[in-house]
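Appendix B, example 12.
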Amino acid sequence: MKRRHFISLFALNAIALLICLGCQTAQAMKEHPNPDDTKPHIESPQNVMVPPLAVDDTSITLIWSKPEDYSNVVSYNVYQQGSLVVNTKKLFYTAKELIEPGEEYTFYVTAVNASGAESNPSNKIEVSTLPKMQVFDVTDYGAIGDGKTVDTIAIQRAIYACTKGGKVLIPEGKTFLSGALFLKSDITFQIDGTLQGIDDAPHYPLASTRFTYYMSGNNFMGLINAYTVNYGSLKNIRICGGGTVSGGSDRVGSIRGHQNTKLGDNQVKASYGDDSDRADMIVAKGVDGLYISGLKMVNPAMHTVFITYSRNITVEGIHVDTYDIHNADGVNLCTSETAYIFNSYFDTGDDCINFNAGVGANGVKENYSTKHVRVFNNICKRGHGGAVFGSFTAAWFQDFLIEDCVFDGTDRGLRFKTGLKQGGGAKNILCRDIVMKNIVKDAIFFDSTYDCKYPSGGAGQFKEIIVKNITCTNTKGYGIYINGSPGTEHDNITLQNITIDAAKKGGAYLKHCRNIKFNNVTIKNCKTNWAIDAETTSGLEFTKCNPKP
């Protein structure tokens, strides 16, 4: 609520006096400088907040944004109830100590420089933990948890019984075998043991639609489903815990050659050879308020976490180990908005973190863009890309921040992919402060050559994108690869403060692009520094680049 302030004549006079005194003080300071004036200015962290549903009865997770100028910031101090609780280089903190159910806590964050000096406090937030949650232990509803008995009905019974604000518990130390489970609004589904999917296809209805116009039709439902076609009618669902979600009985790490899991093969057989019908392991569709945290995820039949038509999403602290399973992406965020993905580890059979905005003419017409997304403090190992935009780009990706991640051993680091028929593209994207190393193909990648079997939505385009503060060491492809399409060139991309060291194919490859700005880009230990197609590029700018083209 806005407050109206009324200033009396007396107050105006007082203000005038203070201004006068201030002028005099300023003059005196010029004559007698304060020793503190020699201290460097440190800007405060911004926007301290709790991301969607990241609070329960025992913990509170905070995130914050860097100061606008963070050049002299090396870490952050987090204060709880006015006392320092942690110093961290990360952009998040989970408070678990001195936390009680149903209590209010105050937090703020300061930035710290190399000498230990602090900024002024950030905004202060007051957060209340949830009241002590009622627990619905699945073993109280008949689940056995011996890894042999099918517990689907018992677990679903516990979900039905769970009251608003309650917790369905998969207890620690047991393995619960299950088919498709369906969650409801306003519950926490906490997995502290192991939830393992059954390998047989009939336990998963062939009823999921990722998109209404999906060419292959339905695919099998997942092991865990928060699913509705009435978008927004499912609300406030938390899937979390310290346990494991396994899509089937495969031994973790045993699959090589980009093959399917046992369940994946069985689902292909059940759908008469349609490989695209395989189930995503955790499915969220049409959810307003989704929190996924803490879990180890293995053996998906297809994608690991697939989120569509949803909003207000937090994915944090998950460990995805799906290499080398066919199409086993880590997180797919599709046609959704307002999402935070952080503090997670990915070693995957496909893209580590993938964004999708629909495809072709139908995706353009539907116009569900993927927007307002922040990705930070993640580690991506093997996978087709670290953070991947596309190739389904129809309704645009916009307003993204990708920062403070490590891409080590991925095929590509930042991967933007579209084609001549996908439509849309990406705009207003900031990628910064990322370490890339041991990249199998190209590190920073923009490409328009992906095939599309859907009715054309026009050529996709990437524009208004900033990539800055990147180091890339040891890549087998190009350090920077930009290849648009004739007539729909990639446009207005800035690459700033980037070091490419030992890129086998070359430092940078540019074709079908315009208005690309290179500022302080260093290329070293490369056989070819710059490969530029002069006939299809225009408006290129190079400032403080070494070597210059």
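The longest strand covers residues 425-439. The chain has four helices and 43 strands.
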